Amino acid sequence: MTVGVSDLAEDLWRGLEALALPAPVIRLGVTGLSRAGKTVFITNLVANLLERGRMPQLTARDRIEAVYLQPQPDMTLPRFALEDHLAAMTGDDPRWPQSTRAVSELRLSFRVRGRGFLGGMTGPRVLHVDIVDYPGEWLLDLSLLDKSYEDWSEGVLARITRRAEAAAFMALARAEDGSLALEEPKAIDLAASFTRYLVAARAAGWSDCTPGRFLLPGDLAGSPVLTFAPLPKPASTGRGSLYAEMQVRFEAYKAQVVRPFFRDHFARIDRQVVLVDVLGAIHQGPRAVEDLRRTMAEVLAAFRPGQNGWLDWMLGGKRVERILFAATKADHLHHRQHAALTAITEALLRDAKARADFAGAETMALSLASLRCTVEEEISRGGETLDAVRGRLADGRVVAMYPGELPGDPARILAPAREGAEKWLNADFALMAFSPSRVARKPGEGPPHIRLDRAAEFLVGDRL
Amino acid sequence: MSEEPRLKGPALIEVGGEVAPESFIEAPEGRAMAGVRALASRRASGFARFAGWVFGSLFSLVLTVAAWNFVTGLFAANPWLGGLASVLLVLAVGVVLVLVVGELLAFSRLARLDSIRVQALHAAEVGDLAKARAVLGRLEALYHKREPMAWARARLAERQGEVLDADALLRLAEVELILPLDDLARAEVEAAARQVATVTALIPLALADVATALVSNLRMIRRVAEIYGGRAGSLGSWRLLRRVFLSLVATGAVALTDDLLGSFAGGGILSRLSRRFGEGVVNGALTARVGLAAMEICRPLPFVAAERPGVSATVSRALAGLFGARDQA
Fold this sequence. Notes:
heterodimer, A: alpha/beta, 4-stranded antiparallel sheet, 16% strand, globular, B: 13 helices
């Protein structure tokens, strides 16, 4: 009925922004481990923001006059290969884009008609959204930032002793005496063996594969900063000993590789989306779920959630104001199970979410599919009707899949995982990897998705 | 609608006529609309209802007996005339039946709007997509005959399969189907407010302004209901008017003179210029408020995606043309 004072103040502030200040920028941090679907998320989000026909939940949709892909502000980074990824996903032979091997950036500029009290007077506003894509392996390194070499070594060795993939490396590491003087060939052997373990572990579905640069070294390959491995602590660690040298290299890795990466890409984000492949982890078993939970908690501890006050704004410090926790690949499930998937995701990331909520950031959890590649279908098996999805597999077969019933209570998933169970009790989950299917798009429509519009509304909708 | 608001109604009406001892100018209280309100929200006492029932029964008995005597008497006097009279009588009964059926259908249409709204609220609350889809199916059935909405329905049908959240689906339906209807309904409300304001400002007769206000309000409510898909008959409109006033009383929105708008437009500057002028503005504002309440009652979906239209905005738009602020109304 009446215009509230806060509305008026916001209108005034926006009017001022449009008149006097340079166009506001939102830095959107897309965080997710490798294979969580960051590249597909960015590609389809941008594609659907460019063509907004499929974004009914974006409330500012009607006021957006134009969206434009700008050259990004950071001169040293390559541009995100949006067109290549989009062509791969929506071409005649649709497939998933290749995994990301380097950092790239994108700036999306919105021209939005104002609304409210001052909207008519100030004319359209401009808002920039910067998005960075990077290999998910590197994200894991954020968890190293507040660990010493000793902590990290102990943690890693304790976790991997029972893993079959690590047998060769463990044999090598146990045989080594850290108190002896450093011999470079030995260090190289150790690092190479540890790298082989990391590659095998990643292939087996483990999430905690640090340091990430061992998997994707880029131009650092072979440098001392990548030539270290976890070792048991010897009785004496004198100067120049193997252990002490490993310690030095670990610290250098943190200071010269991880910290610049964090500073350049994550320290100043104001909106964050955390993509988690919960379904994949559940499919792999309780250990993968627990592994995922611990890894995500460690990674997310590096971010600073909260609200940006005037002082933060003046001093240039930034806090993450809104965090979206999203379970990806929701199109592998019928929508009746989405609520259960969201609940599991929320419970899985509870630590990070509670911390952000307490700090005053806004958080939301949802299940989304960045690129929807299935349709829902009901199939009958032995007289009962199952809510399944139909999609195309990589080999071209079209199948209908029912992945198993997710429990409504997340504790049924998380409790066995925490207790280190080998297998799910009275439950079975099967998952097929669907490929994108061919879609005939009408003009003005982006590729199909599930709840990408809701995610966009939460992440940037309040500033449009 | 429990007992409490019903008891409150008359008390509010009585208070409206009093004059504060220290005020020199009598504040306009929208007398015409107060009359309408008194008519609409009057609640008969038990005895009055009994009396009404007794007199009604007596009257219909007399009518039936008289008609019977008339026809049989006519038969005795002249079989031809008697036959004609009985045919006419049968036709008259048929007409009454048709009217009654029409009114009943109108009631059921209005009830359907209510039940759709309740179902939509429930679906959004539970987050059940199947229920939300059922609501959309009922909306589709409600509007499938309307040619101007064909595009909106086609767009909705196209997008429907992609939205997998109950609240988002209902919001989509509201944006596509209901928002255009909102504009029509609001135009209707503004027209009625303007009419009531003009008439009560210009007609000096004491009861004539109440009558015009009543007719305008009834017509407005009826049109609003028609726009949202519940063609209300005459009894239905009357019942809607009662419901609107009861809901206004329940929310306390009917005490207009202490409203911001009332004191500004009516009690303030305008009434100092001309008492009748202020009277007109207040009556118009009340009509707008009645109209907005009617929109809320008739709308098949609750206001979620759209904001509830505000009374002040509607009134200022409605009256802008009237008092020469803008040419176009």
